[in-house]
Specification:
The chain is of the alpha+beta class. The protein has a domain at about 1-80: Orthogonal Bundle (Arc Repressor Mutant, subunit A), CATH 1.10.10. It is about 35% helix and about 15% strand. It contains four helices and six strands, in the order ααβααβββββ. The strands form two sheets. It has a three-stranded antiparallel β-sheet. It has a three-stranded mixed β-sheet with strand order 5-4-6, with no helix packed on it. β4 and β5 form a beta hairpin. The protein is globular. The N and C termini lie far apart (about 45 Å). About 20% of the residues are buried. Belongs to the Fur family. Keywords: Cytoplasm, DNA-binding, Iron, Metal-binding, Repressor, Transcription, Transcription regulation, Zinc. It comes from Paragemmobacter kunshanensis. It is found in: Cytoplasm.
């Protein structure tokens, strides 16, 4: 089981053209080792790494997540301008942000319709549109 997770992590890093350092391999195995998509914060990944017995600093986790994003392996989803989630699912899709638990999950994309976007300013192009649907418990 662990070997399969390490192999998936190694292949994932290779797709992004990243050198497989010990820390990158450990974090990649935690992120994609089971083949499932994940939404993590740097803090939650740091906690997972600690539970797995990996010696890695929170700063290294932040830097590694940024490197994974720059390599096109993950997307960063910013909530409230201060909270970042990192998503291993790379296709365009909306998210639910669950305010009660401060968690992010995929929302079904088949019902989302964006009718139009404003023109990008001169010299710029739209690279991505992030849709975060905030949820809270209904009153009553």
């Amino acid at each position: 089981m662990v070997l399969a997770a390490q192999e998936r992590g190694t292949e994932w890093l290779a797709r992004g053209g990243l050198r497989p350092t010990r820390q990158r391999l450990a974090l990649a195995a935690l992120l994609v080792g089971d083949g499932e998509d994940r939404h993590v914060t740097a803090e939650s990944l740091y906690a997972l790494a600690g539970q797995a017995g990996e010696k890695v600093s929170l700063a290294t986790v932040y830097n590694t997540l940024r490197a994974f994003c720059e390599a096109g392996l993950m997307n960063e989803v910013v909530v409230d301008g201060s909270k970042s989630y990192f998503d291993t699912r790379m296709d365009d899709h909306p998210h639910f942000y669950w305010e009660d638990s401060a968690t992010l999950s995929d929302a079904p994309a088949d019902r989302l319709r964006i009718e139009g976007l404003p023109d990008a300013p001169d010299g710029m192009q739209v690279s991505r549109v992030d849709v975060v649907i905030r949820l809270k418990r209904a009153a009553g």
